Amino acid sequence: MSAVLERCVDRAQAVRIHAYGGPEAMRFEEIALAPPAAGEVQIRQHAAGINYLDTYHRRGVFPLPALPGTLGVEGAGEVIALGPEVTRFKVGDRVAYACPPLGGYASVRNLSERFLLHLPDAVSYEQAAAATLQGLTAHMLLHRVTHLLPGDTALVHAAAGGLGSLLTQWLHRQGVRVIGVVGSESKAAIAREQGCNEVVVGEYIRATRELTGGVGVDCVFEGLGGQVFHDSLTLLKPFGQLVNLGQVADGLPVVPLAALGPAASLTVSVPGVFAYVRTHPDLQRAADTVFSLIADGSLKVRIGGRFPLREAANAHLALQSRGTTGALILLPE
Distance from the CA of 258 to the CA of which of 51, 83, 156, 307 falls in 20 to 30 A? Predict the structure, then answer.
């Protein structure tokens, strides 16, 4: 297919960092934009996702390829121009993505077509920006990482958060008993609405043991690491599985294999959604599953905050406060 560059733009607004640091390190500025290269499309973004991973990039925990650099790994918008050799997309297509390379905090960006997903009309740009990464993560967890069956019990930390919201709904839909852990009564109400069978506010160790009659759970999903990771291991049944989804608190701890078996017979998984995106043989099919569940209301996308692109620093402050529910998104102006 020949290049279609008539609508190509050469300037964009973006949020970049020139040095690692706190939210104050983020700058809203105009940047030059090259025409899309071979195999790339140019996207006018209608919404961009905000993920805790973005704070790791901003702080340098996971360094950017180069500085200055634009943050963000998730977004949704419309194809406005095609580079040479693009075959899967045309101008006007609705698209979403959830993957490196970074650059989602921008009004317009170029991205290889191999990373893009067709977005159906029934899913809004805001829903896609809020749920593509977390939806694919939930798909990975339930179709590749775990093998939970109806009647099994799962403990979900941060059950009212962006990923927790989608995961609890999907688990409930599959007949899994879900115990959700949240930090406040207001979040507990949200967790119950989205399918948690029981909700624990705050201290969860004794409550989980009581709720399971001392037997424990089949699986724990946690994204804090540190002591929460260690404590969660004690709540698993024999042959139970702990799935770590991040290290928001104290990092990923070292766990001796002797602590996992043979007496306990436990399994620990530390899956990465970008590896799933990179290696899945038919990522569009996986995304279609997520998008169809959103479109028919089986998965309700909770957007906990909408911020103009220029206020990305305030969005990071809100995210780090741990007081938000659902997903946060940025809206280019």
Answer: 156
On whether residue 185 sits in a domain, the answer given is yes
Residue 161 has what DSSP assignment?
B
Domain span including residue 166: 150-270
Amino acid in position 111: L
Radius of gyration of the chain from Cα atoms? 20
For residue 188, what are the β-bridge partners? none
- CA 15, CA 103: separation in Å to the nearest integer? 9
| pLDDT one-digit tens code per residue, 69-120 | 999 999 999 999 999 999 999 999 999 999 889 999 999 999 999 989 999 9
Q: Say what the pTM is.
A: 0.92
CATH of the domain at 215: 3.40.50.720
Q: Does residue 219 fall inside a structural domain?
A: yes
- Whether 231 and 254 map to the same domain: the answer is yes
- Least Cα distance to 230 among 248, 238, 242, 239 occurs for 242
First to last CA, the chain: 32
H/E segment holding residue 110: strand 108-112
Confidence of residue 1 (pLDDT cuts 50, 70, 90): very low
Q: Are strands 177-182 and 108-112 parallel, antiparallel or unpaired?
A: unpaired
Across-strand partners of 153?
177
Judgement on whether residues 123 and 229 belong to the same structural domain of the protein = no
Min mean pLDDT across 8-22, 131-145, 253-267 is at 253-267
